[in-house]
Amino acid sequence: MDDFLEKFFPAVYVRKHHVKENNYCKYNDKGLQLFTSSLYLAAIVASFFASKCCTKFGRRPTMGVASMFFLAGVVFNAAAQNLAMLIIGRLLLGLGVGFANQIRGMLNILFQLMITIGILVAQILNYFMSSHHPWGWRLSLGGAGVPALILCFGSLLIPETPTSLIERGHLEKGKLVLQKIRGSDAVEAELGELVAVSEAAKGMESPFKGLKRRESFPPLVVTVLIQVFQQFGGMNAIMFYAPVLFQTMGFKSDASLLSNVITGSVNCVATFVSSVLVDRAGRRALLLEASAQMFLCQVIMGSIMAVHLKDHNTLPEGMAMGVVVLICGFVAGFAWSWGPMGWLIPSEIFPVQTRNAGYFFGVSTNMICTFIIAQTYLSMLCSMRAGVFFFFASWIAVMGLFVAFLLPETKGVPIEEVKERVWRKHWFWKRYMTQDDEHPDKEVQL
Fold first, then answer.
1. Exposed (0-12), middle (13-18) or buried (19+): which is 318, by Cβ within 10 Å?
2. pLDDT digits (tens, 9 = 90+) for 101-130
């Protein structure tokens, strides 16, 4: 929004309107990139403390802390008078993300679907607020306070989970909550199972220490690589900076925001498609198909931009609309594959003992890579021009090879059987399983 740029990034505003700056460099500004990326830097830091908070105090307090950070961040952003206030607000929002990630639960595709719905709502809000001068950007940033308030009141109203209460020694409270959830007093059998699982967990070695065992190497490597590929395929570069990209091609501000709403709608619908197909087609099939689709979209987009978009012209209208269609194709491929699979597969490939620790590494890796992409993309676009699309295409090619040769299928495999049915039977990863039986305490240096 011009009002936003003029107040906080005047150099970008001048390049956009008054200087014959080349198309690819109008928005190249480290402060603008920091405004986007600082949220994820704070989320990385917060996740270290949030995990312990969730374990010690439970889900409800963690949820409440997340909402407080969100609300504080909204206040700083909506009332911002300078760039420092904007960055502080983004950092506070990032702390909220770090704490909120602890309560995602195990319905990972549903979690991803809710994210895409939230993105779409934000894009629609931005589109309508762009015509309100000069306060539209404040209304957009302030709108984040609505879900923050819902989260805040929700943390006061919902009960704590029985598992969390039992793990923290509140057996009677856990029993009462379980009775309320089931609508029956006859919960002794289920309560006994939860107590047994909790006691067994206390007797286990630290999950982080368990990750050093040889048999933990395959799921840990796969989890980390999935998060790297999920970000370096270019999806968040497009979702974060789509309006910038559309304006680079010659769209006006309102048209850019409207095109962003279109891509957000595709993102939302395609994520829903994934929830329908994932247990029918399998994880590998969706990822392989999407890798090919995403690769082609990036290569064709890069070719069109390289040939038809020079430093100081605009794309012909037909070409520009073609790029929008290609972006939608790219977004759809990601949304029914790498988006939800990036969270689903890591939740399926670790044994129970190391599942939480392994998932923590996955989330942390994702946040680090998201920060890198958010902080560097505009500079890459300026220096590489259309070559940035081929950069992402090369990563997607590697992603496809990774799935084809190193990613096992976990469709229909219970967690307790994943070691025997997945890792021991994989042509490459099985070598890390056989020796471990002979030397159960042998550790691998990661």
1. exposed
2. 877 655 567 888 888 999 999 999 999 999
